[in-house]
Design a protein that fits this description.
The protein is mainly α. It is about 75% helix and about 0% strand. Helix 4 packs antiparallel against helix 5, helix 6 packs antiparallel against helix 9 and helix 9 packs antiparallel against helix 10.
């Protein structure tokens, strides 16, 4: 389940790209084989994923210039808009889960270790840092807004990158409050 969740979070709506990545994983596993989370993560490539993680971090921090830089990098790495939005959804969902776990008495470090799928070690400190600013209810609001943005992007009524940039900019500015 964790592997499937990781794959789902990393692959976007581009059918051909998704198929190619799944074929790569199948070849890597071999007939009747299996893959662990680390192998899946490495096989799917970290550069676009890390660029998208930078987008989520910039939004959570409310840093407009960092958001602009992270979006440019994500698009250079061929991340699609749905992938970017979904990663932001996942980030704020995880942040909300962490907030609830801490409110229930867990330490931030133990709460991060308990997340499924496991959080990349490079993101753990950022999530813990964001716990101070983001309450669970506020995280839920962000996830809902990001889901609305994803629906609009999929409707193809406006250029994906324009809509994604403008929407994430709005969320980034709200994060400053």
């Amino acid at each position: 389940r964790d592997g499937l969740a990781l794959i789902s979070s990393r692959l976007g709506s581009d059918h051909a790209a998704t198929k190619a990545e799944l074929e790569k994983l199948a070849l890597l596993a071999g007939p009747g084989g299996s893959l662990n989370l680390a192998t899946i993560s490495k096989a799917l490539g970290d550069s676009a994923v890390l660029a998208v993680d930078d987008v989520a971090d910039a939004v959570a921090n409310g840093h407009v210039s960092a958001l602009s830089k992270a979006l440019r990098k994500a698009w250079r790495e061929e991340a699609n808009c749905v992938m970017i939005i979904r990663r932001c959804q996942t980030y704020f969902y995880q942040l909300g889960m962490l907030g609830n776990a801490v409110l229930d008495g867990q330490s931030p470090q133990n709460a991060v270790r308990g997340l499924r799928p496991p959080v990349h070690f490079k993101l753990q400190d950022a999530l813990i840092r964001h716990l101070k600013k983001w309450q669970p209810r506020r995280c839920t609001d962000m996830v809902n807004r990001l889901q609305d943005i994803e629906i609009i992007v999929k409707s193809k009524s406006i250029d994906d990158r324009t809509l994604t940039s403008q929407s994430l900019l709005g969320l980034c500015l709200r994060a400053r409050r």
